[in-house]
Amino acid sequence: MRTKTLYFDEAGFTGYNLLDPQQPIFTVASSDVGDDEAREILNASFPRYQGNEYKFTNIWGSGNRAGLLAFAERFSTLGSRAFVYIICKRFAVLTKIIDFLIEPMMTRAGYDFYSDGFAWKYSNYINYGLTEFADPSLFNAIVAAYQAFSRNPSGDSLRLLQWRLNVMKQSTDEPVQLFLDQMATGAELFDQYHDLETFRGSDELQLTTMHASIGHWRQRHSEDFEVIHDDSSNFLRHREMWERITNNNVPRQLHPMGDGTMVEYPLRVISTIAVDSRTSLGVQFCDILAGLAARQFSPATTGEDRAFMERLIKNGLGEFVFNGIRPDTVFPGQIPPRRLRGPDAVDQLMGIMFPNG
User: Fold this and answer.
1) Share of residues in the chain with pLDDT > 70 (%)
2) CB atoms within 10 A of CB 124
3) pLDDT given at position 238
4) Which CATH topology does 3-89+208-325 take?
5) At what angle do helices 176-188 and 136-151 cross, to 10 degrees?
6) In the chain, which stretches have pLDDT less than 50?
7) What is the pLDDT of residue 356?
8) Residue 194's pLDDT is what?
9) How far is Cα of residue 336 from the mean position of the Cα atoms in its chain?
10) Rounded to 5°, angle at Cα 268 from 266 and 270
11) Distance between CA atoms of 95 and 127, rounded to whole angstroms?
């Protein structure tokens, strides 16, 4: 079997602080543009660049910024050879609330919460309700209350979360009150669905993003994958989980992704290699793309910066493929979801990672 080498880098990582107002977007860019091809693109785009590696942060605010127009032009032909997974961190916290407070109740009631991308669509539905029918401060209060608990889970912080959600529920009207009622009830029942002593929060983004990115590539290519990433990335702090997800000894099967599409397992990642980004032009290429995507999707990109981003998109940057965890207007076709028949998506993934229970 032939091997495809995939390069990865990220932008906007702020650890477990998912509500950092200065960096609201986290991105992971990946491509099959190797070192030699990346060298040609980068040298041609930034002929006056000084430094031992190409870094987006050094380019954006310097005289080399105009070279991004030439860099963007390459995507008119590169297009599908690059993929960016984009996470709006504030929205991601909302999805965690839904996953950990609402989903367990729905599953116990016999519904398949993840079928046909229902969880993602329901997150969009709640996001729309909160942003269209409530004061903006309510959304901020909800995600802040949950993240305070998630970053320091304990009996005391859980009780504080329960109290805060109940106060917010009593302070709202329909249709928003329904969502707060579900969250507050899920918080009250948290101990029934989760072991608080072993719960380590739900703020991890990197492993989730790498998994989704590999899923994208597997849906489109038949080769085995070699993964090369910047050694400064923290996702391999969860090395054991990554090795279980990419285990090539699992039975061949189709597994649902968060957006409702299916990906074939095993993912056939034959190696994962951390490199010093200074030695890999392929990783540096992804660094620039990840930085551009973070700027593009950030609400903080305004004025002249926004106008420049629009020029980049017209020049060709808009051709790269992306997906992620960000608000959309795709809503559930039915509420509640269809009835559960067999293991749901989470149980199926646990079966892949822990085949012996």
Assistant:
1) 95
2) 21
3) 81
4) Nucleotidyltransferase; domain 5 (3.30.420)
5) 10
6) none
7) 65
8) 95
9) 25
10) 140
11) 9
Query: What is the three-state SS of the chain?
Result: CCEEEEEEEEECCCCCCCCCCCCCEEEEEEECCCHHHHHHHHHHHCCCCCCCCCCHHHHHCCHHHHHHHHHHHCHHHHHHHEEEEEEEHHHHHHHHHHHHHHHHHHHHCCECCCHHHHHHHHHHHHHHHHHHHCCHHHHHHHHHHHHHHHHCCCHHHHHHHHHHHHHHHHCCCCCHHHHHHHHHHHHHCHHHHCCCCCCCCCCCCHHHHHHHHHHHHHHHCCCEEEEEEECCCCHHHHHHHHHHHCCCCCCCEEEECCCCCEEEECCCEEEEEEECHHHCHHHHHHHHHHHHHHHHHCCCCCHHHHHHHHHHHHHCHHHCEEEEECCCCCCCCCCCCCECCCCCHHHHHHHHHCCCC
Closest CA to 82 of 258, 326, 316, 298: 316
Phi/psi zone of residue 163: left (φ > 0), alpha (ψ -120 to 50 degrees), beta? Answer: alpha
Q: Report the 10 Å Cβ neighbour count for 347.
A: 12
Rounded CA separation 121/222 (Å): 29
In the numeric block, which tokens belong to residue 274?
A: 């951390």
Number of C-beta neighbours around residue 86 at 10 A? 22
- Structure-block tokens of residue 45: 């785009």
Q: Residue ranges per domain, the chain?
A: 3-89+208-325, 90-202
**Which of these, 322, 294, 296, 293, lies nearest to 309 by C-alpha position?**
296
What pLDDT, on a 0 to 100 scale, did the predictor assign at position 131?
A: 95
Note the pLDDT of residue 346: 63
Residue entry with tokens 């008119």: 76
Which residues, including other chains, have CB under 8 Å from residue 232's CB and lie 6 or more apart? 277
- pLDDT score recorded for residue 352: 61
Longest dimension (CA), the chain: 62
Tokens, residue 294: 């973070």
What is the rounded radius of gyration, in angstroms, for the C-alpha atoms of the chain? 21
* Residues forming beta bridges with residue 255, ordered by sequence position: 263
Which tokens sit at 266? 């095993």
